[in-house]
Design goal:
mainly alpha, 14 helices, flat
Length: 282
């Protein structure tokens, strides 16, 4: 019986491993095709959309990409500034708001949290017209700051950070710091933020990816070419009235995806640490 049980466990582990490999391959397949297509010409892509053999047109695709009226490197920098600013502000101030909701007792706390939950139910596209009018009345169009500052108020992030902070950060730890004479911001920055690293890393990936890929609001508020983000430039490549250069589009998409992959690999260790910590607590 013990040998039979061991054999069953071995078979089960083998099946799980095979399924995991298949799912991993399916997940990586679109990225592999995208990278390979960035080295192929438009004619090759039109003839055979899927190929696993790299071609020799990477340099020519790059010349086409950089030969447009806009500057892709400038777009890359604008996207980096926008995504970095949005991610930093959203994570810090959302965690700070969650700290106020968890560690303080005040009369309107439940009402305030209910208000945040209600705002989560409102689609962001509904508010874009009013936001557009406000930005143009203030003469703030074509400035990345108008897309970065609204990240301070992020209801979904506040909700996530509050839910994570309640079991992860002990109120007695904060009270001990207060008794020792620590100021509130020092307590938050030096004690609470390090404990919240797994949650911050997890949300940093989602926040960075969503802001990096955002097209709708930047397309409305940024009309000068030197302010274009990379997704705007990629969308303009697809709209060429003479010829659609699919090779350069795939190269632009590869450049767009590259920072997202780097951010994921940098922050993934904190996500794994957070999962391990949660399992130990459980």
């Amino acid at each position: 019986m013990p040998q039979s049980k061991k054999a069953q466990d071995t078979i089960l582990k083998t099946i799980v491993l095979i399924v995991s490999i298949i799912l991993a391959a399916m997940s990586l397949l679109p990225f592999i095709i995208m990278i390979i297509n960035s080295t192929r010409s438009t004619y090759e892509i039109q003839q055979h959309a899927v190929s696993f053999i790299p071609s020799k047109y990477l340099l020519s695709n790059f010349k086409i990409l950089t030969g447009k009226s806009f500057n892709p490197l400038r777009g890359f920098l604008n996207s980096l500034i926008l995504s970095g600013g949005v991610t930093g502000l959203a994570l810090y101030f959302s965690t700070l708001t969650a700290y106020g909701l968890v560690m303080y007792d005040w009369k309107a706390k439940k009402a305030f949290f209910s208000f945040i939950m209600a705002i989560m139910m409102i689609p962001s596209t509904i508010t874009i017209i009013g936001f557009y009018q406000m930005v143009y009345k203030l003469h703030m169009a074509n400035r990345l700051i108008v897309l970065i500052l609204p990240a301070i108020a992020s209801p979904s992030l506040v909700f996530f950070m509050r839910q994570y902070m309640k079991p992860a950060v002990s109120p007695s730890l904060v009270e001990s710091a207060r008794i020792d004479g620590a100021k509130e911001f020092f307590t938050f920055n030096a004690i609470v933020l390090p404990i919240m690293k797994p949650a911050i890393a997890t949300q940093a990936i989602f926040c960075f990816v969503s802001s990096w890929n955002e097209l709708f609001r930047p397309l409305i508020l940024l009309t000068k070419q030197d302010k274009y983000t990379l997704p705007i430039m990629i969308s303009l490549l697809k709209g060429d009235i003479y010829k659609t250069e699919y090779g350069s589009i795939y190269l632009g998409l590869t450049l767009t995806a590259l920072p997202l992959i780097i951010v994921y690999f940098i922050l993934s260790k904190y996500i794994v640490a957070g999962v391990a910590l949660g399992s130990v607590k459980g």
